[in-house]
Design goal:
By secondary structure, this protein is α/β, with parallel strands linked by helices. The chain is built from twelve helices and ten strands. α9 links the parallel β7 and β8. α6 packs across α8 and α8 packs parallel to α9.
C-alpha cells in the first residue's frame, strides 16, 4: 500500500458560512490521481479548499504527509500557518489564478515564490528567476506570456500561469480547482496534454476539483462524488461509470464544450458504448 499523504477524519467544514458538512474519513495516497465531482458544488469546493488549507474547519483532524495540522490552525485558513517545509509539498492551482494583477506574470511568480517559500537558504531566494523559467518551460507557458500582465493573457495562458505557480516547489501533492473552466477545443486539449506531461512517470499525487467529467476520466482513476449532503461514491472511476454510464453520458452530452459529434464519439468510446 502506498504512503498516505493526506488524511482527514471527522472533519467538519462550513460551506460559504451557511451550512456545515462532515467528512468522516478520507485518505489520499502517494501517486493517486483523484477527481472531486458531483452536483453539490458547495460541499465539494469547501472540501477541496479545506484540503488545500484555504478554508477553515470547525473540528476534526487532518494530517499531511504524516504531520498533524493543529486544530487551532484548522479553524483558520491554515495554509500560510504551516511550516515552509510542509507548505512546499502542496501545490495549489486556483480557478482565480492567485496571481498579482499589476505586474507581469514573471514578476508575480518570482515575488510570490520569494514571499511564500523563501527562507534563510539564499540560493532558494536568489534562484527564483531560474526556477520560474524552468517551471514555465515544463508546463508549456511561453516566454512571451511570462512577460505580460494577467489582463493581457488568454484563458489557457492564465491556467498555465496558475499551474506554474503551483509547481514552483515541485510539490508532492498538486491540487487543481476547475482547471478546464472556460477553455474550448484546442485550449482544453493543450491543458490535458500538459497534465499528461507533468504527471507522466512521477509519483506526484493529483487532486482535481472539476465539473468536467471527461477531464476527470482522462486524468483521475479515483473519483469522489458529492451529492446532496454527503459523499455518495469514493472508488475507481470505472466502477462509477459501470453503475451509471448512461446517465453520465447524458451529463457529458449536455456540457457546452462537448456537444460536437467528435466529442460524443470519444465519450462513447471512453464509456465502452461505441
Amino acid at each position: 500500500m502506498a504512503k498516505i499523504l493526506w488524511e482527514a477524519s471527522d472533519l467538519v467544514i462550513r460551506a460559504r458560512d451557511t451550512k456545515s458538512y462532515t467528512v468522516e474519513s478520507v485518505k489520499i495516497h502517494a501517486g493517486e490521481h483523484v477527481a472531486l465531482l458531483g452536483g453539490n458544488r458547495d460541499f465539494r469546493r469547501s472540501f477541496f479548499r479545506s484540503l488545500a488549507g484555504l478554508e477553515a474547519a470547525t473540528s476534526g483532524s487532518m494530517r499531511i504527509d504524516g504531520e498533524l495540522v493543529p486544530l487551532r490552525h484548522l479553524r483558520h485558513p491554515w495554509r500560510d500557518l504551516l511550516s515552509k517545509k510542509l507548505r512546499r509539498k502542496i501545490g495549489v492551482s486556483l480557478e482565480s489564478e492567485g496571481l498579482l494583477s499589476n505586474v507581469t506574470i514573471r514578476e508575480s511568480l518570482e515575488t510570490l515564490f520569494r514571499f511564500k517559500y523563501g527562507d534563510h537558504n539564499a540560493g532558494l531566494v536568489e534562484g527564483a528567476s531560474r526556477i520560474v523559467d524552468e517551471t514555465a518551460g515544463r508546463v508549456g507557458l511561453s516566454t512571451q506570456a511570462l512577460d505580460k500582465r494577467p489582463s493581457d493573457l488568454g484563458r489557457l495562458d492564465l491556467r498555465l500561469a496558475s499551474l506554474c505557480l503551483a509547481f514552483l516547489t515541485k510539490p508532492v501533492i498538486l491540487l487543481m480547482e476547475n482547471p478546464s473552466q472556460g477553455l474550448h477545443d484546442q485550449g482544453w486539449e493543450a491543458l490535458s496534454k500538459t497534465l499528461f506531461h507533468i504527471l507522466e512517470g512521477s509519483q506526484r499525487t493529483l487532486v482535481l476539483d472539476t465539473d468536467d467529467w471527461l477531464l476527470a476520466k482522462r486524468h483521475a482513476s479515483r473519483w469522489i462524488v458529492f451529492e446532496q449532503d454527503s459523499i455518495v461514491f469514493d472508488g475507481h472511476a470505472d466502477e462509477y461509470i459501470a453503475r451509471c454510464g448512461e446517465f453520465l453520458l447524458g451529463e457529458l452530452q449536455t456540457d457546452r464544450w462537448q456537444t460536437r459529434l467528435s466529442w460524443i464519439e470519444e465519450i462513447r468510446k471512453t464509456l465502452g458504448a461505441a
